[in-house]
Amino acid sequence: MTETISLALFSGTDDKLTAAATMATGAAAMGRPVKVFLQFWALDAFRADRITKDHGVAHEAGPEGAAALRRLDEKGVHWSELLRQAKEIGDVEIAACAHSMEMLAIGRHDLDPLVDDVIGIAAFMAGVNGPVVFI
Amino acid sequence: MTETISLALFSGTDDKLTAAATMATGAAAMGRPVKVFLQFWALDAFRADRITKDHGVAHEAGPEGAAALRRLDEKGVHWSELLRQAKEIGDVEIAACAHSMEMLAIGRHDLDPLVDDVIGIAAFMAGVNGPVVFI
Amino acid sequence: MTETISLALFSGTDDKLTAAATMATGAAAMGRPVKVFLQFWALDAFRADRITKDHGVAHEAGPEGAAALRRLDEKGVHWSELLRQAKEIGDVEIAACAHSMEMLAIGRHDLDPLVDDVIGIAAFMAGVNGPVVFI
What we know:
The structure is a homotrimer of 135-residue chains. Chain A is an alpha/beta fold and 135 residues long. In chain A, 44% of the residues lie in helices and 16% in strands. Chain A has a five-stranded parallel sheet.
């Protein structure tokens, strides 16, 4: 039960990031270490100046799904806040993918303080010790 | 080899649900326990009144891909039927995510009988004992 | 650390295939066996006559994201080349899903030589010995 949960976040839409943050919170609450790796469009969503902005939802959700998620957001907590809580209750590390940083021309200071580090894929894979969840 | 396969289903399109049902069937046939957790748009697809309706395909499939899947459906078995078979041959549990039920205003009686239970993320994570596949 | 990484590739867009190839390369560099299983739209992207053609990006990327990935491609290496390198440095097997071959009417000779074999879901699941990553 002390296996790490590794979350490779690829998608930057609010529905998938909410699912990811929920999983991180659940794992942290169970006492499992969580390692989050931000790539591509998920990394883009962690820019400090837009982390709580509207990042859209999966194409399949349609306008009805988008509206349902927005209603939830109004009374619930944002996925970035869920991740902040997960970091408080457990061992949760969030790293940005160095390669995606370069591709998107994002500098370290552009990122929200939730992000602890910038690492390469080899370092992420070296930390894998349990399930790897690609979201 | 007795590790559980945990499937966190997020997407509700017929191509991804077919991939998920195929994986559940393969795992059940190998004697592995399977735990399915339905979130967001995947949960929506399990409503009793529309489970076998057309749920579309991933945006990237395009009209050609959608047509290929439709041809397959006509001669093959629907993903819901694949899951029914997986439950018959193996230890397959399907649970709905309590949080997504609330978001989509879905009640327990709205769901297809394939769904065994409604649980929270902590209960799902507690059952993780092997790979976690997010689809 | 000798656990296999099993990659079930479903999506055929260049951004997700790049993420998958990067993960395969990272795992191979760490000395982990990698088993890749090609389904649906990912299988379609491995046709010999179009593997290096433009396969688009995830819908959420938008025109800006697509342009960023294209700039990366111009100076970097294509995902198919990354996979070729991963096979050279490590134990990486790539198999096509028999069921998806039938659905998309793809014959074995239509596929790029990167693909080693055609197998069913049961054979793929039998080889699972560690994380299963669905991309």
